[in-house]
Design goal:
- Its EC number is 2.7.1.35.
- By secondary structure, this protein is α/β, with parallel strands linked by helices.
- It has one domain (6-253): 3-Layer(aba) Sandwich (UDP-N-acetylmuramoyl-L-alanine:D-glutamate ligase), CATH 3.40.1190.
- It has eight helices and eleven strands.
- The protein has helices at 20-30, 60-73, 90-102, 121-135, 146-153, 161-175, 219-232, 237-253, and strands spanning 6-14, 34-46, 52-57, 79-84, 107-110, 141-142, 178-182, 191-197, 202-208, 216-217, 263-264.
- A nine-stranded mixed β-sheet has the order 3-2-1-4-5-6-7-8-9. Strands 10-11 form a two-stranded parallel ribbon.
- A hairpin with a 5-residue loop joins strand 2 (34-46) and strand 3 (52-57).
- Helix 1 packs across helix 7 (219-232) and helix 5 crosses helix 6 (161-175).
- The protein is globular.
- The protein binds 3-hydroxy-5-(hydroxymethyl)-2-methylisonicotinaldehyde (PXL).
Amino acid sequence: MTSTPVALTIAGSEATGGAGAQVDLKTFQQHGVFGCVALTCIVSFDPKNDWNHRFVPVDPQVIADQLEVITTAYPAEQLDVVKIGMLGTPITIQTVAEALEARSFGHVVLDPVLICKGQEPGAALDTDEALKAKVLPLATFVTPNHFETMSLSGLGAIETVEQLTEAARIIHERSGAAVLAKGGVHLPGDEAIDVYVDGERTEVLRAPKLGDGAQVAGAGCTLAAAVAARLALGDSPWEAAQAAKDFVTRGIEHRLSSGAPFDVVWQGA
Ligand code: PXL
């Protein structure tokens, strides 16, 4: 018998293993956290069409079935941390929101994946609005990237640490969640800057920009999954944010190249 912590990810599959549920499970495992998955969609990039997303949603009843069996197998005392990744459609968002309301989790880590290439713009807009209305209020920890930070805060441009901090504060005030807003490579200078805001502290996290301009996929999924894993291990949200930033920085340093036009994070580093 073991008292290994358990964490759940509600996420999509990205077949090549660079993003989504595959990244979440690898990250959980690397932290010594037992992972389970409720799969929301299947993404297959299309190498014949500029590596755009081919996106297939999982039937809402099948998502509900997965969440039913997971929460029955692991009661609240055992499974207290859920990470939410790509949901992809309004009906999926509705299904997941209902499950989160039916059974409370101590920590709900939301990676607010807003746009998915290959989806109809109209459908994506519905999805963004549903995510903001139904899932964001249930989150205890949110990890928006640069674009998502603009969208969730309503700020039109984020080009400085001060603007990133202001946006993170707005998102914190709207959601009540701890916010780790990621500047990534989008702020000028040679550092990848993230801002952490909760009710008590505002902190700036810095790491050197890595990758020589190469695109690295999966960093957002890895970061949010590492936050979830550290919370499952008993860290405070601020401790989890710092440890997750270190974990993803190491994973980017040891990134993997492939025939795809982007590198991916190596969680095993
Ligand atoms: O990185 C965002 C993301 C999350 N989840 C899945 C994805 C992607 C990006 O491709 O495919 C399943």
